[in-house]
Amino acid sequence: MKVMAIVLAAGQGKRMKSKLYKVLHPVCGKPMVGHVLDAVREAEAGRTVVVVGHGAEAVKSYLGDAAEYVLQEQQLGTGHAVRQAEALLGAEEGTTIVICGDTPLVQASTIKSMLELHASSGAAATVLTASFDNPTGYGRVIRGEDGTVQRIVEQKDCSPEEAAVKEINTGTYCFDNKKLFEALAKVTSNNAQGEYYLTDVIGIFRASGESVQGYCTEDLAEAIGVNDRIALSEAERFMRERINRKHLLNGVTLIDPASTYIEAGVQIGPDTTIYPGTVLSGSTVIGEDCVIGPQADIADSKLGSSVSVKYSTVAQSEIGDDCSVGPYANLRPNSKLGTGCKIGDFVELKNASLDDGSKVSHLSYVGDAIVGKDVNIGCGAITVNYDGYNKSVTEIGDHAFVGSNVNLIAPVKIGDGAYVVAGSTVTQDVPAGDLAIARERQVNKPGYAEKIRGRAKAKKEKQQQ
Ligand code: UD1
Ligand code: CA
After folding, report:
1. pLDDT tens string 160-207
2. Which atom of ligand 1 is nearest to the CA of 224?
3. What average pLDDT does the segment 143-148 reach?
4. Prediction pTM value
5. Cα 412 to middle of ligand 2, angstroms
């Protein structure tokens, strides 16, 4: 059976009250229309046509060549939208899935089951339905005594009896392709909203003696159509639960799934444990046996195995195996750690690479730096990389030791095995193996402490008089 798909994505989504076009609103980090296209592709649809209108260029540039496009210049309704695809698909024989770009939770497995029912029943159309306790806002599915679908009535056109029906139209269907476009030509805009409803095709089929099946999904989340931000937040919650379940089944421990936020594109290896308050986003990939969180915020980053990240943020960075990060570290974009590195509390890294075994344990800023293997950067040491206009690079060789509270004024190079003593402000390169000391020599004044206390005490007593 040849299967095609039409995705409706031309609406503006007024009820979202947003500058962003509705179908581009992300659910768990991926635009809704992206989720829909994934499902359609996984259900093995061949030619896929996306109907674009509002934000056409933005939708096309997001989806790229994953689909063909037709433009619906005026949004005259879902029936009108589907009709725009006739120029591309009208001549094809086969089955066409029609799905809305604002129903991100529809699953490929459900579409496949619907396609099977459609094929075996010989119906002209099959509608994906769900049964809602509160069906407000959705089209109602009116079934006949034989259980087949007679028609779909939009909320605004419902009689009181129809409004009481709990079975709703999810907005996903499959159609006999030829019959779909024949029936669409007969749809009028004679209804409460003055729109050409795709749903009227069902009644048109019945009137011409065709049969229409309903496939009711048990998973109510699938039926969510996102028209406003309340529905968006519900879709986010259901999608998050679905993503978390997938990771749990793959062998990842989530201490508290309800407070763990993992976006759709994230990959996590088995035997990794995620503590509460953790947000993993974008293209993040995490290896095996890691301990992440509590309160880790990791975006677009790649972590090896046996890595620990606690109370820290990591963005667009790479962390090798056996590293430990945090608590309270901030890895800004383009930070790169080799194997077995340690980044401790209140350390900020930016555009800095540390080779295997290097440590920055406390209170440091390392920016625009290339750090070798087994380097120790002491407490409070910083790279001074910015003069108000230019960024400069600090290079530190293998096995070097940078003492506490050192300022490395970039551009500067510390050679392999060099030693920079605590409190130094380094403005010149330090050759390999040398010791650099750049601070005032200490002076002790014997017995002077008592003298200075006496002076301070006298001053205070004078003020109190
Ligand atoms: C539609 C269905 C309703 C169903 C609900 C499920 C119709 C008439 N109604 O209602 O039965 O219960 O979805 O979520 O079909 N679109 C276009 N061009 C248009 C109009 C809409 O591309 O001219 C697109 C929108 O971008 C959206 C989708 O079609 O992705 C659905 O449109 P929307 O206005 O949200 O329809 P609903 O009122 O939700
Ligand atoms: Ca909708």
Report:
1. 999 999 999 999 999 999 999 999 999 999 999 999 999 999 999 999
2. 14
3. 96
4. 0.93
5. 59
Residue owning the nearest CA to atom 22 of ligand 1: 10
- Whole-number Å distance, alpha carbon 65 to ligand 1 midpoint, is 24
The CATH topology of domain 243-436 is: UDP N-Acetylglucosamine Acyltransferase; domain 1 (2.160.10)
SS3 per-residue string spanning the chain: CCEEEEEEECCCCHHHCCCCCHHHCEECCEEHHHHHHHHHHHCCCCCEEEEEECEHHHHHHHHHHHCEEEECCCCCCHHHHHHCCHHHHCCCCCEEEEEECCCCCCCHHHHHHHHHHHHHHCCCEEEEEEECCCCCCCCEEEECCCCCEEEEECHHHCCHHHHCCCEEEEEEEEEEHHHHHHHHCCCCCCCCCCCCCCCHHHHHHHHCCCCEEEEECCCHHHHCCCCCHHHHHHHHHHHHHHHHHHHHHCCCEECCHHHEEECCCCEECCCCEECCCEEEECCCEECCCCEECCCCEEECCEECCCCEECCCEEECCEECCCCEECCCCEECCCCEECCCCEEEECCEEEEEEECCCCEEEECCEEEEEEECCCCEECCCCEEECECCCCECCEEECCCCEECCCCEEECCEEECCCCEECCCCEECCCECCCCEECCCCCCCCCCCHHHHHHHHHHHHHHHHHC
Give the Å distance between the CA of 61 and the centre of ligand 1.
Answer: 22
Q: Mean pLDDT score of the chain, rounded to an integer?
A: 97
pLDDT tens track for 334-351: 999 999 999 999 999 999
118 is catalytic: no
Determine the residue of 100, 132, 142 to mutate for testing ligand 1's pocket, defined as the one with the most ligand atoms within 8 A of the Cβ atom.
Answer: 100
| Ligand 1 proximal residues by C-beta, below 6 Å | 8-11, 23, 51, 53, 72, 75-78, 80-81, 100-103, 138-139, 152, 154, 168-171, 197-199, 225, 227
Q: Which CATH superfamily is domain 3-223 in?
A: Spore Coat Polysaccharide Biosynthesis Protein SpsA; Chain A (3.90.550.10)
Question: Which atom of ligand 1 is the closest one to the Cα of 22?
Answer: 26
